Amino acid sequence: MSDIKFGTDGWRARIGEDYTFDNVRRVTQGFAEYLRRHELADQGVVIGYDQRFSSDLFAEAAAEVMAGNDIEVWLTKGNAPTPVISYSVVEREAGGGINITASHNPPPDNGFKVRDPQGGAIAPDGLREIESYIPYTMEAVHRMPLAEAEETSLVRRWEPKPAYVEHISQLIDLDALRNAGFKILVEPMWGNAAGWYVDLLSGGTNTIEQIHAGRNPLFPGMERPEPIPPNINAALERTVDIGADVLLINDGDADRMGIGDENGVYIDQLRAYALLAYYLLEVRGERGPIIKTISTTSMLNKLGKMYDVPVHETGVGFKYVAPKFLETDALIGGEESGGYAFRGNVPERDGILGNLYFLDFMVKTGKTPSELVELLFEKLGQAYYYDRIDTRFPNAKRPEARERLDNAEPETLAGVPVEEIITVDGYKYDLGDKGFLLVRFSGTEPIIRVYCEVTDESLVEPMLDAGLELAGLK
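User: That's the sequence. What structure does it adopt?
Assistant: Structure tokens below.
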């Protein structure tokens, strides 16, 4: 048995090593105890899963433990996108949710996410409480065989799609999108979004094609189902080959999104976030706070000033974003990874709704994706350039690297003055109007990340080099 700790978004581990059926049962027992102590157990729990290796079986193992604790379970009939599972918690009026997914992690991994009654991520103090309830041995795990649980209706299988589609149809005009006349390429990355856009956007004047739309837990053709290059290079090339108007991308569990323009150029996550915020503020005329993690774009701060809306910055992960989103009744909340939440929906990343909003932006303005980027930069008065470097970094070396970064107080980086050093979640070097550099340790993998966003494209590479030097990686 191993200690189980929740990272940036849930518990993730290597299948067959730490991620075993018994460990899934143990963490489920901990969550069952949490629900009981918070008087949520009587409301039941939603359990869903992705297309990774044995995710369906791990979900059934979790259902058996919940049933063994006399907690009613709604178990999805098949794999379902993470935003659909999150919305289902609200639609079922459940006390919480479990999602068996490792999101964008490499193929050998799987994961375990928990959600609160609002369908959002549980705050860090709640996650620590759940961890404290996880039994160390299997003797303390209560379990009911699945067949018995289904026979007694403690576990019910159901299809969550109809309720979710009805819900988002209240947020966006699906009929208008179906008749947009677009040629759309969809890249679900062998994941849960496969087939969804065909169902949502067909029946009108659109032409829709998919790539990597089957189930293959090895994710061939990509290192991992993360919606960024080089994982999406084949889809970007296909966009040009078929003359598509837009490429819609989702990661493996469909809570994150990505956009490729009509020229096969990736619109990075920071630009995508700023575009969605601009769309809500300008095209839809909505107002409300914006929630951003420290790793995402400063374009949001500029839009906040222009439209007189507050911008709140949090640590990385929706366990920080979701509570702030609810507290402030935010218009939009998101992070650098390509996950964005929207008012009127659950306080959780929804890559499907985000892509639909982007399509609506195209419909409402009559502009191509590349033209929308130019429109944003015209509004802001300058262009913004972003990049990130991920480096494998053993957890055992973190203390040494932290000490190095704690002691580093650079006055300039790549020749640009550092105005402030922020250590909310990592080491962020604020460069004022020139942008920022961030060095932080991943909360889900043994990786150290170096991010930068600058307004001078020639600074991207030297700024990333400066970050690697600060971390002792160069």
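The chain has three domains: 11-160, 166-378, 385-470.
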